[in-house]
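Whether sequence alone determines local backbone shape is best considered at the level of individual chains. The sequence in question and its structure tokens are set out directly beneath this paragraph.

===
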Amino acid sequence: LMGMVGTRRSLYYSKYPYFPHWKDGKVRSQHNQTSTNTRRASASKPNLQQLPKHPKIEGYEAKFRSIVRPHKPNAVVVSIDFDSQEMRLIGEQSGDKTVLSMFIGDKLTGPHSLTGLAIAMRKKPALEWSYEVFEAIREDKAHPEHAFVKACRVLGKKLNFVAEYGAMAPKVAATLLISEEEAQLLLDAREEMFPDVVLWKKATIAEAKRVGYVLTMLGAKRHLRDLLMSDDRFEASKAERQAVNFKVQSPAGEMTKQAEGRMWNDNIYFDFDAVCCGPIHDEVVSSCVVDQLVEFIQRKHACMAVQYAGMKVPVVGSISFGLDFYNQVEIGIEPTREAIEAGLVKMYAEAAKRTAAKNDARMLLAA
């Protein structure tokens, strides 16, 4: 809790009051396309990539995304993100059957449930586990193992986010506030669930050491020879993680930049009363007036849901919108008129509830 408060003070509370322009009160973050080694876009003054989506601690909501608001009173903030972007790239490049089962086939699985299943199998090996059994227990609140399964999935979700970047047991332990022994157990369980991913990572590191660089699926190169050959073991091991990370983060960055380019070429910010707020991680955020929302979302979605570098794994765009970037209504992956109109009804209903709650709070304070 102290660490979270310190982070929020240093990143937001002490800096954001100085960003609004003196004339109109708006904040204009700078969009940097070529400032990172991973080819991901970045931002500065302020760094929008630091706007958290989920609370670090339950009960302490991270409402910082609410600073991104519509450009007009009759507009909404629209976000389309690449669904499970990094796991799709890992599955494509590793060929791991378990990862591919999340995205290809008739019975799709979930990444966090799969990792949760691996943890459950490690912690309670005596039970007969399968993905179907795990999901059935997770849905059945009356089942005696429901709380255990739910906790395993939550842990699996947290572990996926940490381990995706090559974190080792000490980092996982510090992040999840567990012992290093338990962290290593979780990492081992995850590796057993995705064995071909482990082999792919080892092959990526071996190839990087052999040629001195790594390539994206489109051929962009990152040189790592000097770091990989360093006598400093920490630097060398860091370079190994960077090699694997580049194979995931760089294609992800290229996908987002290509989507932005398609939006520019398609003139969506000129054909509609809309503005681009910028990319935030795997999302491209915009603002558009409500009476043009259906066609705008459909054209924006078409610019994002495009296959990258001949991938077999489908590239999917997940759609949401709201009265700010924090209060978003998710409508799924298909930009149909019916889904968008139903989302608008839900958005206004939730906004009315928030307004009513604020008025109740004011009345209590006044009393």
